[in-house]
Amino acid sequence: MPQRDDERASVPKGASPTSLDEMSAPVTVDRSTRRRVVAASFIGNFVEWFDYAVYGYLAVTIAAVFFPESDPQTGLLLTFALFAISFLVRPIGGFVWGHIGDKVGRRTALSLSILIMSGATFCIALIPSYAIIGIWAPILLLLLRVVQGFSASGEYAGASAFLVEYAPEKKRGLYAAVVPASTAAGLLLGSLIAGLLTTLLDDDAMSSWGWRLPFLLAAPMGLIGRYIRTKLEDTPVFRELAAEDETIKAPVASLFRLHWRLLVRAGGAVLLNAVGFYVILSYMPTYLSAELGLGATESFLATTIALITYIGFIFLTGALSDRYGRKKVLISASVTFILLTVPAFALLGTGNFLIIVLVQILLGAMLTLNDGTLPCFLAEMFPTRVRYTGFAVSFNLANAIFGGTAPFVATFLIATSGSDLAPAWYLVAAAVVSLIAVALSRETSAEPLRHE
User: Fold this and answer.
1) Which of 173, 323, 340, 376 could tie 318 with a disulfide, CB 3.0–4.6 Å?
2) Has residue 9 been placed in a domain?
């Protein structure tokens, strides 16, 4: 990423703590520090979404291992139900990690969350199958998914706040785009490994041990991420607040008492991200293979190609939001989803591989208009004293209710309606809500970060 050693936030000399309300930290951040900040923010989300990708891409195999007595569609529904239930704990995690991040420090919260998350992911690989321990197999899977959901709930918000508070003022959107790029990279590696395993191994090998291999990778990746994070200082603006004893004792209470309107608008803005991300990037391989009859290898290949282009588009939209504003880019995302989602899903039903790849690239590009802009938009929306909490609570509430349930809802809507276009209409509804929420929010791209 482009760096400039001389970029800093400007605060008049001798400014008092109360005059810092509309100012960023007067601290020069060198190029080496910013590189390490980017790496630290990248790897945590990478590990988190690598796990979610593997779980989603290997859902059919996981269903056979943990729910072998169910028919294939019921087993798939139960597997996605566990995926959704694990998200219910995310709002609780948002409150906890938000409190730690705003009271103790961003670095502390991020260092702890990646350790817990990678440990739980590693342990999933060690769970015996239903054939060995019966009902305890899905129970243990659920418990570990809940631990994952709790730990991961502070990751996206914390990494976004970390980057925005370290970034040059006019490049906050570009820097914050590292967070969704890291999620896509995690999904990409998950897709590649899942595709490789399904190509090289037969069904028996996949069910007995093959599906476990990707989860084992979480431990070394998590330890590397924690090591990088512990070598960094906290963000300049947070250190400034802490030095002046200006942090809030109860960030959650302050958020709901003073900033509840921001919280409501933020939750609405997140809705398209929550539904779109999980339907387009996580659920799509299962949709293509289980619902449209495309081969598993072709499904993984199409999603992999789309993810590669998605990562490139993410940084473009982050830069566009710096130039034209967060609201314009986010509104464009909602409008394109409202107009193009149903026709795009109709084209997926043609079964033509080239058309499927092109449609997935289009859907991914549409999603980046939202995903590449949203982290900076949410971080700028909340003041420094409650930034981590506001971001974590709004993001995780929306993802708990609508994101984690998206694969289950999509599968359920198809089963009950009989229409393969049902997930597309669900996406359109989410886009309408996000459009309204963003339209009611103010533009923050040209403003300094607020402290209160």
Assistant:
1) 173
2) no
| Tens-place pLDDT, residues 356-375 | 889 989 998 999 999 999 99
Q: How does pLDDT run across 302-340, given as a tens digit for each residue? A: 877 888 898 889 999 999 999 999 999 999 999 999 999
* Number of domains, the chain: 1
Determine, yes or no, domain membership for 63: yes
Tell me, yes or no, whether 46 lies in a domain.
yes
Domain region containing 263: 30-233+259-439
**What pLDDT was estimated at residue 366?**
93
Q: Write a three-state SS string for the chain.
A: CCCCCCCCCCCCCCCCHHHHCCCCCCCCCCHHHHHHHHHHHHHHHHHHHHHHHHHHHCHHHHHHHHCCCCCHHHHHHHHHHHHHHHHHHHHHHHHHHHHHHHHCCHHHHHHHHHHHHHHHHHHHCCCCCHHHHCCHHHHHHHHHHHHHHHHHCCHHHHHHHHHHHHCCHHHHHHHHCHHHHHHHHHHHHHHHHHHHHHHHCCHHHHHHCHHHHHHHCHHHHHHHHHHHHHCCCCCHHHHHHHHCCCCCCCHHHHHHHHCHHHHHHHHHHHHHHHHHHHHHHHHHHHHHHHHCCCCHHHHHHHHHHHHHHHHHHHHHHHHHHHHHCHHHHHHHHHHHHHHHHHHHHHHHCCCCHHHHHHHHHHHHHHHHHHHCCHHHHHHHHCCHHHHHHHHHHHHHHHHHHHHCCHHHHHHHHHHHHCCCCHHHHHHHHHHHHHHHHHHCCCCCCCCCCCCC
Q: What is the CATH number of the domain that holds 84?
A: 1.20.1250.20
For residue 190, pLDDT over 50 is answered with: yes
95 inside domain: yes
Query: pTM to 2 decimals?
Result: 0.82
